[in-house]
């Protein structure tokens, strides 16, 4: 399961997992130091902003199908899968969202 996840990490899972991991990191910093927490938040949001240009360069606008499709067996015993993909409209929403966060 982990091998399949690492193959598709840079397409769509990266912009999702980067803020999640970045929000866990400040839990280990004392509350009295606000500045490092803000710097971690800014750095994580800028790293997240760097993910969408890669799919934008490889995106094929001539097709209406979903691209960069990821399918991950999330809970195999319940037959539940995580399925993600980008079409032309959602690509620009992903870029806009990662641009507005920093």
UniProtKB/TrEMBL annotation:
Record keywords, A-Z: Membrane, Transmembrane, Transmembrane helix, Ubiquinone
InterPro entries registered for this protein in UniProt: NADH_UbQ_OxRdtase
E.C. code? 7.1.1.2
Any Gene Ontology biological process: electron transport coupled proton transport
Give the source's domain of life in one word: Eukaryota
What GO molecular function annotation could you give as one example from this UniProt entry?
NADH dehydrogenase activity
Transmembrane residues, as ranges? 36-54, 80-101
Protein name as annotated: NADH-ubiquinone oxidoreductase chain 4
What organism is the protein native to? Aegilops tauschii subsp. strangulata
């Amino acid at each position: 399961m982990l091998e399949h996840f690492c193959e598709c990490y840079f397409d769509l899972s990266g912009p999702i997992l980067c803020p999640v991991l970045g929000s866990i990191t400040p839990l280990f910093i004392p509350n009295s130091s606000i500045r490092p927490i803000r710097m971690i938040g800014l750095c994580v949001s800028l790293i997240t902003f760097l993910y969408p240009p890669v799919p934008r360069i490889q995106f094929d606008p001539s097709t209406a199908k979903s691209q960069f499709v990821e399918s991950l067996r999330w809970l195999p015993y319940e037959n539940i899968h995580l399925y993600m993909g980008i079409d032309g409209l959602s690509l620009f929403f992903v870029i806009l969202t990662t641009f507005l966060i920093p």
